[in-house]
Amino acid sequence: MYDEKISVILPVRNGDRDELLRAINSIYAQKHENFEVLLIDDGSDKDFAAVLDEVAKMDERIKLHHISPSGVSGARNYAIDIAEGDVITFLDGDDTLRPFAFVEALALLQNKNIDGVIGGTVYISYGSSPIEKESPFSYEELKKRSVKLTLGRIHKTRSECIGEPYRFEDAYINRGIAARFIKKRVFSDNAHRYPVGIKLYEDAIWNLQMLTELKLLYVESGWYNYYENNRSVSNSYNPDVINDMELPLSRIRKLIDLDNPGEYRAYTRVLVDSLRYVYKCLYGNPEWKPSRAGRKAVKKHLYKDEPWAEIGSKKYFKYAEKRDKEKAVLYKSRLLFLYWRLRRGSL
Q1: Does the pLDDT value for residue 279 go beyond 70?
Q2: Mapping DSSP to helix (H, G, I), strand (E, B) and coil, where does residue 108 land?
Q3: Cα 298 vs. chain centroid, distance in angstroms?
Q4: Residues sharing a CB contact under 8 Å with residue 268, sequence separation 6 or more, in sequence order
Q5: Given pLDDT bands bounded at 50, 70 and 90, which one contains residue 346?
C-alpha cells in the first residue's frame, strides 16, 4: 500500500449540509486513509459557517479555514498554498468520490515521470444514485486503461478540455476539476494556480494551461460522481452573465490554436454552451425584467460583438459539427425571441 498523503481541496459557500456530508463521507470511504480535507469556507453566511464548524469537529483530518469571499479560484489557490499532502485533488461540495479513487490514482502516480493523472467522471442525473464498482483495477489493468497525453496528442487533448470530452464506458473526462490527482511539487513557485477574477470556465482555463505544461495520463476508470444540480451557477439567475462570459472566452481563445480545425471545433462547442448559459441565467429566466432599451442593447451586443458574432462567421460554419450549427441557431433564436413570446403569452 502507498503512504503518500492526499490533500482534498473542498471549497464551499452557503451549500447544502446533507450534500456536504455526502461529499465528505465519500472521502472517508476511501481505501487509502492518509489524507487531509481542506474545507475552505469562501465567505458563507453566519448560519452555514456554523454548520461548517460542526462538520469540522467530525475528525481532525478536516481542516476548516474561514476566508474572505475570494471566489472559487481564490479559495482553491488558498488551499493549494497550505496543502500538506504529496498529492492534491479537488472535490465540490455537491459531488462525491468513488471508493477506490485514491488507491488507483496513487498506483499510477508511483511513476516518477508522471505529474498527474485524470480519471473519469460519472454523471448522476437529478434524483438518481450512483452505482459503485466493487473493487479497484489492478496496476496492470490500470496501465492498459491509461492514455498518455503526449505532445503529439496535444491538439486532441486541448479540444477535449473545452469541447467534446474523452468518453469511455459509462464515464468521461470532465473539463472541470473532477478526478484530477496532481503531485504537489508541480504547484511550487506559484505555478498552475486558478485564474482569479474569472467566474465562469475558470477550471477550463486551468486545464488548458496544465495540459500544455505537465506530463499527464487519462485513466479509463470512473473516480468522480458529478451530481446534476439545478441550483448550480450555470442554472441560476445572473444579470451579469454575458459580461462574466466574455473574459474567460477571450482567455480560452488565446490558449488554443484557432487555426487547427479540431481546436476551433471545440471552441464552437464552448460558444454554444455559453449561449445556453446566457439563456438559462438571463433571457429565459423569469427573474429578468429589463427595460426596452436594455433589451435592445443586449440583443445588439449578442449579434454584433465578439465573441458572439463569431457564431455567424463562415469559419464557424466551416468547422462546427452539424449539431453545433443547429444548436447555435436554436439558442440564438431562444435568446432573442422566446423569452418575450412567453411573456406575451403567445406560446
Answers
A1: yes
A2: helix
A3: 27
A4: 163, 311, 316, 319, 320, 321, 324, 328
A5: very low
Dump the DSSP string for 267-308.
HHHHHHHHHHHHIIIIIT-TT----HHHHHHHHHHHHHSTTG
Average pLDDT of span 308-325: 92
C-alpha cell at 42: 469562501
Residue 52 one-letter amino acid: L
Tell me, what DSSP letter sits at residue 223? E
Q: What amino acid is encoded at 305 in this protein?
A: D
Q: Which three cell numbers stand for residue 120?
A: 473519469
Poorest-pLDDT segment among 12-26, 79-93, 152-166: 152-166
**Is the peptide bond between 307 and the residue preceding it cis, with omega within 30 degrees of 0?**
yes
Predicted confidence band at 150 (pLDDT cuts at 50, 70, 90)? confident
* Residue at grid coordinates 496501465: 143
- Full DSSP string of 141-155: HHHHTEEE--GGGHH
Q: Which three cell numbers stand for residue 309?
A: 458574432
Spell out the residues 6+ positions from residue 339 whose beta carbon is closer than 8 angstroms to its own: 279, 283, 284, 288
Residue 93 phi/psi, 5-degree rounding, is: -70, -10
Upper half-sphere CA count for residue 265 (Cβ side, 13 Å): 16
**pLDDT classification of 347: cutoffs 50, 70, 90:** very low
Percentage of the chain modeled with pLDDT above 70: 95
> How many C-beta atoms lie closer than 10 Å to residue 323's C-beta?
10
Q: What's the distance, Cα to Cα, between the start and end of the chain in Å?
A: 62
Q: Are strands 96-97 and 216-227 parallel, antiparallel or unpaired?
A: antiparallel
Beta carbons of 100 and 133 less than 8 angstroms apart: yes
Q: Residue 190: is its pLDDT beyond 50?
A: yes
Beta strands in the chain (DSSP E): 6-12, 35-42, 62-67, 87-90, 96-97, 116-124, 146-148, 167-168, 171-172, 180-183, 216-227
Cell of 296: 435592445
